[in-house]
Design brief:
about 80 residues, alpha+beta, three-stranded antiparallel beta sheet, 1 helix, 3 strands, binds iron/sulfur cluster
Length: about 80
């Protein structure tokens, strides 16, 4: 079965995650500052980032858990 990724910034190759809710869109290269996008935003330039999506969601989970004072590991093996 083919899993179709939701076309949001969080799963986009042009996205660079900066915190748990947002990151920079680098679809236009060479800018001094890249536009900030929410993880749930989307546009027609979306490109699948593949495995990176799971690394990002793991990182967000870890960050949120840390904010709540929890310790543990994510399913991608990231220790936080
Ligand atoms: S705005 Fe478009 S190109 Fe930029 S990160 Fe989001 S989906 Fe990707």
């Amino acid at each position: 079965m083919i899993h179709l990724q939701k076309k949001i910034c969080l799963s986009c190759r042009n996205f660079s995650l900066q915190d748990t809710q947002s990151g920079a869109c680098k679809v236009v290269k060479g800018l001094a500052t890249y536009p900030l996008k929410a993880t749930g935003d989307t546009c027609d330039k979306w490109l699948d980032c593949g495995q990176q999506y799971f690394i990002r969601t793991g990182w967000i989970k870890g960050r949120l858990a840390k904010e709540h004072g929890d310790k543990g590991t994510t399913e991608t093996g990231i220790i936080f």
